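[Automated response] Your request has been received and processed.

Submitted sequence:
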Amino acid sequence: MAAANPVSAPARQLGETELIWMMALLMALQAFGIDAILPALDELAVSLAVEGNDRQFVIGVYLLTAGVGALVPGALADRFGRRPILLGSIAVYIVLSLASALAPTYDALIAIRAAQGFFGAGIVALPPAIIRDRVGGDKMARMMSLIFVIFLMVPAIAPSIGELILMVADWRAIFAAMALQGILVGTWVYYRLPESLTPENRQAILPGVIARNMGQALSNPRVIGYVMGSSLVFGALFGFINSSQQLITETFGAGDIFPIVFAICAGSMAFASWSNSRIVERFGARRVSHTALFAFIIVASLQVWFAFDPNETLWHFVPLMAINMMLLGFIGSNFGAIAMNPFFSIAGAASSAHGFVRMTTAALLGGSIGYAYDGTAQPLALALLASGLICLALVLFSEKGRLFGPPDAALGVTRMKNI
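Generated structure:
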């Protein structure tokens, strides 16, 4: 395969550390595309005459179409390879970021963002498949945790970057910054990432084959509870992201420190992912994530308690939100690794199918939670608790009622040294 495309054979081998950074920064393109615009929502709303909660659609529509679009790149990547599909997704991200910066109306901006989410979905859908091409089991969970450490640094600092840009330019410059990021990461991928799909694992582009592979990825009872469960808890997280600017600015009157508050919450997820990478191979993805899920439900219960207290302050809200976002750092990468582990030969289709279910469900739920914002933290708190409880029920279904399973030592054999 390398002979057909000279740049698919880098001058030196790509090691594990570089691969982790590359995959993380690829996925961070989407995170920056969501979180950097948050401080500019008020200015954007005034500039394009947007009223009330409608301003959240610039975030919600991107998340939703990215979920729907996740169905496409995995199937194509299982046939044509990871590199060309990934590079195409990056190119779309760059072009449509520039188009967003030039959008004349809010309707045009929403349409462009919808297209960007759909056609650029490969930047998030394909990294898990690329990792699964090389490793499995708890080894994959460790690598995905390290990827999430780096990936989650971006949401922690993106609003601050957005604020800095707004000091010297208007909201349109934030989209131009997205395009610049895409160019830098895309150049790195173009020259350094080799093709990881082996010839024997290439799948035919036939509707029956695609449907069979994706159906297999979603019909395994030991998998579906983890896919749907993570969809729900991350839907509640998306609800926070959608409504965070209004919550911090309007409910708690702390708009001047919004980037700091958001950084505290997102930074807690990065810390959790780093911690997870240190312990998951010892204790196993199931033990770690199941423990975190129970803790998530307890903290969400406290959030509900305080949300219905008329004297709730920012300093009640932020620590609990940060703790639950930290717990999501232990849940997300582990649930994803558990769900991907059985599908080595169809990793692209499995990653796409799982990404589709997670993103569309989470985006719809998150949009609904955000649009339910009523000047209090109550809708968000109730959603966090409900999602945690339903997630627990789904995991119990997949595990046949038995939680805290042992490490996947037999499944975690790595094929990766240097590539």
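Summary generated for your ticket: The radius of gyration is 20 Å. Residues 409-419 have pLDDT under 50 and may be disordered.
If you did not submit this request, please reply to this message.
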